[in-house]
Write a structure and sequence with these properties.
Tetracycline Repressor, domain 2
Length: 245
């Protein structure tokens, strides 16, 4: 592959098609390779999804797969877009922007929890067809308020950033529960509790102490905690929309 070809997005490269038949090696597809990569990453983490390992699962050598997916970055883009394809949306927004963006947020959270390896990646843009479908749907939900496209993009970005952060936090607690055998409430009570009491009793951090005494978030279910934060973000978007709908 030339240097120029190396820089071409995977979405602009025609897919190599090879048919199997008598005397021919079996043909593969990007979809096959991506599906196996996602399955490996779901079970063992992103680092395990190498071309060598994928080849083992498909019964072929890694080098033969590079004809279909030349670079590691290409594979990750394909994997990310494949799981975004699990986001279920109607063909068009309903006209209720809050309902539409809430649907995107909850669907994206569900996908993130099913595929926790996503949380190990920095929020990188991928312009595959599934990602573009979700992007277009989300911005269409904010269309019609007289906003500049940059304002619409920024407002949608607030939702995306919140969801990514919330999912990373939730996955972190799930990992903690698996490694310790204690859920969030148990771990906070048994491991962190004594230190927190010490900090509160010191009187040195009044706002932290208030959060401990009055805070409700730590007592909510993960779903309720996610919804509370999402409502706060959507309230901020509402304040930015003309007419405060």
């Amino acid at each position: 592959m030339s240097a120029a070809e190396h820089q071409v997005s995977i979405w602009m490269r025609p897919e190599k098609v090879e048919r199997s038949g008598p005397g021919r090696r079996p043909g593969y597809s990007r979809a096959q390779i991506t599906r196996v990569a996602v399955e490996i990453a779901d079970q063992e983490g992103l680092d395990a999804a190498t071309m060598r390992r994928i080849g083992q699962e498909l019964g072929t050598g890694a080098m033969s797969l590079y004809r279909y997916v030349p670079r590691r970055d290409d594979l990750i883009d394909l994997m990310l877009d494949a799981v975004v394809g699990e986001v279920e949306l109607p063909e068009r927004p309903s006209g209720d922007w809050r309902r539409d963006l809430s649907l995107v947020a909850h669907q994206t959270r569900a996908v993130g929890l099913r595929h926790p390896w996503q949380a190990t990646l920095a929020r990188r843009p991928t312009l595959g067809p599934n990602s573009l479908r979700v992007y277009d749907y989300s911005l269409s939900a904010l269309d019609g308020f007289g906003l500049h496209i940059d304002e619409m993009t920024s407002l949608y970005g607030m939702v995306g950033d919140y969801v990514a952060s919330a999912v990373r936090d939730e996955i972190g607690w799930l990992d903690q529960a698996r490694s310790t055998g204690m859920d969030r409430k148990q771990w906070m009570a048994e491991y962190v509790g004594p230190y927190v009491r010490h900090v509160v009793e010191s009187g040195s951090y009044p706002m932290f102490s208030r959060a401990i005494r009055e805070g409700r978030l730590s007592h909510m279910s993960p779903h309720a905690r996610f919804q509370y934060g999402l409502d706060t973000v959507l309230n901020g978007i509402a304040a930015a929309l003309p007419g405060n709908p």
